Amino acid sequence: MAVVLNRHVVLLTFAFTRFCSACNIVANRDDHTGDIPTIAKYFGTKTRYEEVNPYLLNDILLVNKTPLRLQQDCSPVHISAVIRHGTRYPTAKNVKKVIAIYNLVEKTKHRGRGLVDDINHWDMWYNDTMDGQLVEKGRDDHRNLAVRLATAYPSLFSEDSFRDCRMKFITSSKHRCVDSTLSFIEGLVKKYWKMQDRRKDMHCQLEVNDDLMRFFDKCERFVVDVEQNKTALQQVDLFKTKPEMQEVLDKVASLLDIAASDITADLVEAAFYMCSYELSIRNLSSPWCQLFDQEDAKVLEYANDLKQYWKRGYGHEINSKSSCCLFHDLFKRLDKAVEESERSGTVSEPAAFQIGHAETLLPLLSLMGFFKDETPLTADNFAQQGGRVFRTGHIVPYASNLVFILHRCEGSHRLQLLLNEKPLSFPNMDDPAPEYQEVKNLYSNLLKGCDFKKECKLPSASGTVNPIIHEL
Ligand SMILES: *[C@@H]1O[C@H](CO)[C@@H](O)[C@H](O)[C@H]1NC(C)=O
Ligand SMILES: *[C@@H]1O[C@H](CO)[C@@H](O)[C@H](O)[C@H]1NC(C)=O
Ligand SMILES: *[C@@H]1O[C@H](CO)[C@@H](O)[C@H](O)[C@H]1NC(C)=O
Question: Which CATH number fits domain 3-27+37-456: 3.40.50.1240, 1.10.8.420, 3.40.50.970, 3.40.50.410?
Fold first, then answer.
């Protein structure tokens, strides 16, 4: 499998057995493997995919075809999917926080209280070198997702179209995304097609394209107005001072037997995410989970959702507008498929998979008007937002996927949309697979405008600003 990087072809030896950079750690079989913590569905962007589709816990390859079936007599001609990378290690920044809270608890060792004791016996195994890399579970997320999508739409996943390089794979340059893409392909090749003779089949190219998959880094207006704007996330900072959050802090301090003044919202979040990492990476319910009940978890979930709302969602218009390039790319692909299907009945590219980040999906979903609450999420309205639709744990867990399936039907083409393998209706449309032209009418303003260059350009007055590209 070759990877196109900056238009130069770099050969990536595609050995199915390599896949192991930082994953020489496997779940310690002596560890206590308890039930799923009740707080598991509140981990926001660090939520397991299985939490949104719990039936997968029983059968990871199960496809429920009934809700995917269309009313009309149609046949699928093209699939385009935007997919988030799979389960990953914490980033170096988060590992530092995790170590900080662990060290704080370690100091209270001598007091020998139950929970503190359990945490002290828990083995601190995270380190900086793991820095956001895909874990083995993350590879499985993608291998299995590939098999399920192929099972749902077998005619779009023919071995021949793969061999002829008519299936397209585009990825962000981040290690976890490239590895996710390779795992997705591996799932098709080994688990779905069960190809024997692999070497000669692996000649197609994988495209690394950050303009499409990490557009947020390339959008100057976003970088300056949001990323570098000290007040862009003020609602998040403010929420951390609110009574709801303060209660959680006090409670955690008391459970850990440390002074309330020693603990911060950041450290409490680190403890919360430690529970998430142990569950998603090692399938363990760790003692960290016992620090929180569901009410605490809802508060911490809100803090995460608030941040995503203001940084990636509806909070600032440029967040969604920065995805204009990806939006146009998707519709260009669909247009071409419709045109070819109408002209000759065959589509040259039956499938395109684009692997990126939660930060890729959230702006696109916001641009297209999904999960928009009537009232903005703010530091003050936690209680009122209990039933909000902007819930990142439901929308963008690990390996989350937005899938467009174009069908040729009697007299027209229809577009079916799935989020995380479940039908998603277009805003203000009831039909789960409206006519393609209707979808284009719905988005006519965006299709006519939404110019990435124009939206992302800063007025020349601030032309002296030199944007710093942040690592995400
Ligand atoms: C995860 O742990 C549960 C027990 O809590 C077990 O039933 C399940 O098989 C494990 N899943 C995997 C994928 O190992
Ligand atoms: C990080 O952890 C891995 C796995 O336990 C280990 O191989 C590696 O040496 C550790 N790195 C550091 C810097 O401690
Ligand atoms: C920074 O964010 C604040 C809060 O959302 C917003 O009011 C302000 O316009 C932003 N500044 C710039 C330069 O965009």
Answer: 3.40.50.1240
DSSP H or E run through 266: helix 265-282
Task: For residue range 252-303, list pLDDT tens digits in order.
Answer: 999 998 888 999 999 999 999 999 999 999 999 999 999 999 999 999 999 9
Q: Strand 401-409 and strand 8-11: pairing?
A: unpaired
Whether 407 is a known active-site residue: answer no
Ligand 3 atom with least separation from CA of 224: 13
Q: Is residue 468's pLDDT more than 60?
A: no
How far is it, in rounded angstroms, from Cα 154 to Cα 149? 8
Question: What pLDDT, in 10s, does the model give residues 40-81?
Answer: 999 999 999 999 999 999 999 999 999 999 988 999 999 999
Kind and range of the H or E run holding 169: strand 167-171
232 lines ligand 3 (CB under 6 A): yes
Q: Which of 290, 287, 377, 375 is nearest to 44 (CA)?
A: 377
Question: Does the CB atom of residue 103 touch ligand 2 within 6 A?
Answer: no
DSSP-assigned beta bridge partners for residue 76 = 407
Contact between 62 and 55 under an 8 Å Cβ cutoff? The reply is: yes
